[in-house]
Amino acid sequence: MKSQQAPLVVYFSSISENTHKFIQKTRVESLRLPLLTKDEPPVVDRPFVLCIPSYGRPNGAGSVPPQAVKFLNVEQNRAHLVGVIGAGNTNFGDLYCVAADKVAAKCQVPVLYRFELMGTAEDVHKVNEGLEEFWIQNSLY
């Protein structure tokens, strides 16, 4: 599925690389956001899904990584966002994958999937199959 027509996932992964390790196990085409906020974000010219981790801060404040905020502040990037995948830690309780929920609500796109830490083999399978189906259903190929 890694071709010009493959579903594109843009993702942020911190130095823990949990999200990166998950994305590398999938069949999607991917683009990693810069680790440092001082670096310029890429500009995307086709439909994509954003995969972002959440960070456990009180009341969910600051849970969306600033690198993802900077990326989505580029109007062209927001225009091509079609869905969100959340990475998180169930230890955060009600704030599990809250960053995905916040981005989805603000950008009016669906949360397509949630996984914990680096995900499981089942999570990888569900994301591969789910994104392919989502791309077909929404004529994104």
TrEMBL record:
Superkingdom of source: Bacteria
InterPro entries in the record: Flavoprotein-like_sf (IPR029039), RNR_Ib_NrdI_bac (IPR020852), RNR_NrdI (IPR004465)
SUPFAM superfamilies, per the entry: Flavoproteins (SSF52218)
An MF annotation (GO) of this entry: FMN binding
Pfam family, one: Flavodoxin_NdrI
Function: Probably involved in ribonucleotide reductase function.
Family matches, as PANTHER family: PROTEIN NRDI
The family this protein is said to belong to: Belongs to the NrdI family.
Classification via HAMAP family: NrdI
Protein name: Protein NrdI
